[in-house]
Write a structure and sequence with these properties.
Blueprint: E1 13-14, H1 28-31, H2 51-62, E2 71-73, H3 74-95, H4 103-115, H5 117-123, H6 129-136, H7 144-152, E3 160-167, E4 170-180, H8 188-192, H9 196-215, H10 220-240, H11 244-247, E5 256-258, H12 262-265, H13 271-278, E6 285-288, H14 291-303, H15 306-321, H16 327-341, H17 350-361, H18 363-374, H19 377-400, H20 406-418, E7 420-424, H21 442-458, E8 480-482, E9 487-491, H22 506-523, H23 544-562, E10 565-567, E11 570-571, H24 578-598, H25 613-624, E12 627-629, H26 631-640, H27 646-651, H28 658-663
Parallel strand pairs: 4-6, 7-9
Antiparallel strand pairs: 1-8, 2-12, 3-4, 5-6, 8-9, 10-11
Helix pairs in contact: 3-4, 4-17, 4-21, 6-15, 7-13, 9-10, 9-16, 17-18, 19-20, 19-22, 19-24, 22-24, 22-25
This protein binds zinc ion (ZN).
Amino acid sequence: MKMKHLAPQKLILGLFVLLVGCTQSLDKKESQKPNFSKENLNTTVNAGDDFFRYVNGKWLDNNPIPDDKSRFGWFDLLLEDNRKKLKALFKDATEGSNEPGSVAQKIGDFYNAGMDTLSIEEEGLKKLEPVFKQIDAIESADDIPYTIGFLHSYQLNPLFYFYVTADKKNSSMNIAGIYQGGLGLPDRDYYLDTDDASLEIKNAYSTYLNTIFTLMGEDSISAKNISQQLLDFETKLANAYYTRIQNRDPHLTYNKIKCSNLPSAYKGFNWDKYFEGLSIQIPDEININQTSYLTEVGNLVQSESPDIWKKYLKALTVRSLSSYLAADYVNAKFELYGKAIQGKSAMEPRWKRVQGTTSNALGEAVGQLFVEKYFPAEAKERMEVLVENLRVGFAQRIDRLEWMSDETKLAAKDKLKAIGVKVGYPNKWRDYRSLQVGPDSYVGNVLASNRFDFKYEMSKIEKPVDKEEWHMFPQTVNAYYNPTGNEIVFPAAILQPPFFYLNGDDAVNYGAIGVVIGHEMTHGFDDQGSQYDKEGNLANWWTSEDSTNFANRTQVLVEQFNQFQIKDTIYANGELTLGENIADLGGLNIAFAAYMEAIKDKGEIANIDGLSKEERFLISYANLWAENIREKEKLRMTKVDVHSLAEFRVNGPLPNMDLYYTTFAVTPESKMYIAPENRADIW
Ligand SMILES: [Zn+2]
């Protein structure tokens, strides 16, 4: 689940990509204390051969993937737990009668309209008619940009995203941006690759387009023609798309331009009409993330027939909204995205899907209720202490680096000191008063919410960045680093087991939430984050020799991860996942240093469950990533996700740590062994 008002190009770096839903439950009481007794370990596997399965083997056997999931791990269990909490919070709002305009009324109506499948079937595509009318009004190339702008203002996103974010070179100010978008399949590679798995998915997409155009009244021959035309059209967009690796380059994607120069720089696209369609004032400046892609957009507006454009825009509108439409549309979407792409065999229960949409649309209002009921103040206090200890641990690690000059070390520690910390929930909450939600139309409410969020985002253009703002909801199980704010953020929902034990053993907490904190801090110093200074500006603070050393050291990690086999000839992408892999390894090293610092005056630390403190630290970390995953989902994630697969988040970083070798007696004969001279040593 992605936050709706955040286009994917916003700079925050989450701990992982969010999942939605599961069907198994978590017993809260049992989960409050970690139990790492030796009986839970899978001793049929050697800790030196496969640490992920040594720790998680039994868990993996006992937790098969439910039919409606593409993967299943600890995060899913936490999400399920969250859903029960939200269900309890929603209960009053959905069952009682509420004061009109109140948050309870909005939550109640949003949810109830989503559950009212009879009305949804009856309504059909009626709420989409104003959008279709706008699309049908296209007669020439000159009409297209207005319609694109109109769709963007409802967060339907053909061709590209129009969004607002901090200016990477003037990080205290917001700037508008344009980022490539508008493909039906999850990435350009799906259109361009010719392996069997990609072809199968392309076929499924073609079937999907066929289905929705048939549902909209086309006969079978013309529906088939349209789907072929649209695949050809989107392949042209895909060809112009930047790769995910290119998009990780903050300099390549920084191209600020005066809006008055857009017509001469990006021809073939009527920019005045586009802004008219957006119904905003033309900003002074804008950042174009992918310049050659935008040039191609102008070419296509001129060269493709208005008829193709109408089909593309209608397909995109229906695809973006199909989760909120009649069952035929919901099912068609599931066949493509759920089954063909992710390998699921069943859809999640409706109430979970509707709860997710409601919780997104009214995110901070729901978050406020969530923290009032479920977030203990002590958790925030304990976290703040942990974060400061991690900061000390990180500073020690910087001091000991042999490859870095004193000059760069000083700058690094300066940046570390400046990292801002947010824990639990925002200090001020968003105001939803002007959002109109009614009991009659689910898709109508979604469109109203999209429009509301869009206006809210647009109101920030060329205004100072609001430092108090959060880019995740408190009820979200995740954490992030924001490079332009130089800040780390931990929503309330991640501060629970197995990430965080309010009264747990230190070794276990440092191995879990400690590493998460260290991970987020390290993002400020990974291959991307290290290019931003302590104020969050894209500005170099490294000597050139240190920069070269750093690049060489991170390259070791790229090559290590490139060796992980996914299937047949498909391997993990060490370059795409580099930032996350640096953060995982750094997080582990820093958290262990912080743990050592925290216990330095505590004398001998006793074994628990027969396990030493070092064992508990590493097992606690590996336990976070316990997860079963379907093969299709593995292939998808390998293409699109900047995070490594769960298994490699354990078996990737560990063999670069001395601690792993000494704690588990790993020898040169062990499968995970890496010779000392080949280990990655970065932070
Ligand atoms: Zn991360």
